[in-house]
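Notes, p. 3: input format for complexes.
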Amino acid sequence: MTVSRIVAITNNKGGVAKTTTCMSLGASLAEMGHRTLIVDLDPQADLTLAAGLAAEALTCSAADWLDPEGTPLPLEIETHVMTGLDILPTDPRLAGVERRLYDQDGYETTLAQKLAPWRERYAYVLLDCPPSLGGLSIMALTASRWVLVPVQCEYYAARRVNRLLDVIELVKERTNPDLAYYLLATLYDQRNRICQGVLGQLQTHFSERLMQTVIGVDTRLRESPAAGEPIITYAPRTRASQQYRELARELHQRLTAR
Ligand SMILES: Nc1ncnc2c1ncn2[C@@H]1O[C@H](COP(=O)(O)OP(=O)(O)O)[C@@H](O)[C@H]1O
Ligand SMILES: [Mg+2]
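Output follows (258 residues plus magnesium ion):
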């Protein structure tokens, strides 16, 4: 029996390619034959939009699903992005649900419990987190076995992830001792010296915690959300598609290694 590998894609900074990575990595894992579910946990609903869905016209939403008073979802998710890739979309009401959950004792485990029925259906579940360390991100870190932290190759990048790493340590101490993290260098511009320097620092500082795959700047990645499809089907032969496929291979290798 397969049990999903649950990975939170988290960074409290916005614009570091969390949503882009969730969609592109999810599609690449699906292409490799691993059935994958991506979950939109950001009330801004960027992932939902990138899948070509309008937040106003959803038949199911993570906002209802996580709402303590909401209706449970049927086990068959009907929102397909491509073969092997399903999405649990969301809408802006998720912000209110987060506030209501936050007042409840033990709210941290809500997402883990809600995901349990799906763990036999998907090889991977990827959680796209909002750019904050509020209740939704804490629930995601509690539900996951791994955290993938996209880091933009810019000055101060390494220092900025320290707060997130502290929170990961807290979650490990309190509820989730096996949680492990990996960093992913994103938006890398090979002609930019600052970028090169920052990547070097990340390699020195985080060594084997840093994914070897680096995601370069590629304007096609800015276009694919507007087209409502993953980069690997929108522009399958671009460098970004190759890099996200490589990332999927590397992640799968790391997560299945003993
Ligand atoms: N490798 C890349 N090359 C060029 N643009 C990118 C790349 N990755 C992400 N982007 C763009 O950067 C912006 C922020 O990315 P996004 O995935 O929404 O970040 P986050 O979810 O962390 O806020 C988006 O406009 C996205 O299209
Ligand atoms: Mg996002």
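The longest helix spans residues 157-174.
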